[in-house]
Amino acid sequence: MEKTEAGDAAVLVLEDGSLFLGKGFGAETTSIAEVVFTTGMVGYPESMTDPSFAGQLLCFTYPLIGNYGVPSMKDLDSMGLPNQFESESIKASGIIVQEWCEKPSHWASTQTVSEWMKNEGIPGIAGIDTRALVSRIRERGVMMGVLASGSGLANRKGLLKALRDSTRYDSIDFVRKVSPREARTYGGGERTVVLLDCGTKLSIIRNLLKRGFSVVRAPFDYSYADIMKHDPAGVVVSNGPGDPQLCLDTIAVTSRLIDSEMPTLGICLGNQLVGLAQGAQTYKLKYGHRGQNKPVVDLISGRGYVTSQNHGYSVSRETLKKTELRPWFLNADDDSVEGLVHQKKPCIAVQFHPEASPGPYDTEFVFDRFVTLMESGRLVGEKVRNMKA
After folding, report:
1. What is the pLDDT of residues 62-121, one digit of tens each?
2. 268 in catalytic set
3. Residue 4's pLDDT band (boundaries 50, 70, 90)?
4. Could you tell me the pLDDT band of residue 325, with boundaries at 50, 70 and 90?
5. Of 310, 330, 231, nearest to 267 (Cα)?
6. In the chain, is it the N or the C terminus that has fewer CB atoms within a 10 Å radius of its CB?
């Protein structure tokens, strides 16, 4: 294969033996991770830096990625957070595309996607039939894969063995890998929200700051006593990667927060942890919900919304019957649980991303609902108490 700016040949091998040959871009290295896909058409800098993609090889179904380049991480918003990024580095383990743009055009671009990935040690593969790859994942479910380029291609026959001998995604505690080790405070508001960072997107912090709160960004294993030292008006349990059932510390503290009637909001992984904290169960979806066009239905208002999503696990609706949690939103495609509301405690949660980034901002009102919950300490309304699981 002809050498390009990004490198020579690259290969993607799935655990079922499927092999995809393409050209490499980004770093010349080998990465073993779970292969997933996202249907989003825009926002690749936000998606690639979303900590929820840690431990995954991310396939973009949109055929062209990188056409507007990559902005500078030093370009900060009014709140001191990097614009267009959801964390301080690429969190996906590798990138899979049909075509990447070698010559981007945008006034804010400082480098190509390939240069960015090379600087951060992230491999990529382009020129493969991403439609065939997505079809295989939809048919057989997400599976582990190995992406190799450069020297990693020297032993192609050994790639499948290395893949099958690797540790599976489901058994790795990725939250521990992406959560900060120490607490950090943002903003100067009179009221404080503690954010349990299981792999938070920066836009969650932006939305809380925008509503006038100080935000204490705390590690995933922050204790109840440590949380209460900040005298918070409420607590947010963030999004993050991996199997929620591995997050025992966060589940325990979430349970205590809810029982103590601390206003609590769960987002994405946080939705699953709220469910587990109250006695519900979670399960792994066949290929997950990842994209910017995922429809949900609000069971309280009856309205439908288009949402941004990135998750591979869901709360079992059947197991909610033994709890005081009720479904708030349902997925319009498969009826999976997309949100929870507690019938007696000031606790709400959503499986989608109300902060979007990328995606539609239709459900930003979830943050406003949380503010109301913190101010009144009351439930959404009488209808919630009568909802059925």
Report:
1. 999 999 999 999 999 988 999 999 999 999 999 999 999 999 999 999 999 999 999 999
2. yes
3. very low
4. very high
5. 310
6. N
Whether the CB-CB separation of 345 and 313 falls below 8 Å is answered with no
For the chain, which domains are there? Answer: 9-170 (3.50.30.20), 174-385 (3.40.50.880)
360 upstream amide cis, omega within 30 of 0:
no
Asked about 355 being catalytic, the answer comes back as yes
Catalytic residue, candidates 289, 311, 342, 353: 353
Given 59, 247, 268, 347, which residue is catalytic?
Answer: 268
Active-site residue identified among 15, 34, 338, 355: 355
What distance in Å separates the CA atoms of residue 12 and residue 124, rounded to the nearest whole number?
10
pLDDT at 40 over 90: yes
Q: Which residue has the tokens 């479910």?
A: 141
For residue 199, give the nearest of 371, 49, 388 by alpha carbon.
49
Distance CA 347, CA 260 (A): 11
**361: Cβ–Cβ under 8 A, 6 or more apart, which residues?**
none
Cα–Cα distance for residue pair 258/251, rounded to 1 Å: 11
d(CA 267, CA 239): 5
Residue with tokens 């918070």: 232
The DSSP bridge pattern shows strands 213-219 and 99-100 to be unpaired
Between strands 99-100 and 64-65, the pairing is parallel
Summary mean pLDDT of the chain: 94
How big is the CA angle at 38 (ends 35 and 39), to the nearest 5 degrees? 145
DSSP state at residue 70: B
The stretch 234-263 carries a mean pLDDT of 98
Q: What is the model's pLDDT at position 119?
A: 98
Once rounded to an integer, what is the mean pLDDT over residues 358-370? 96
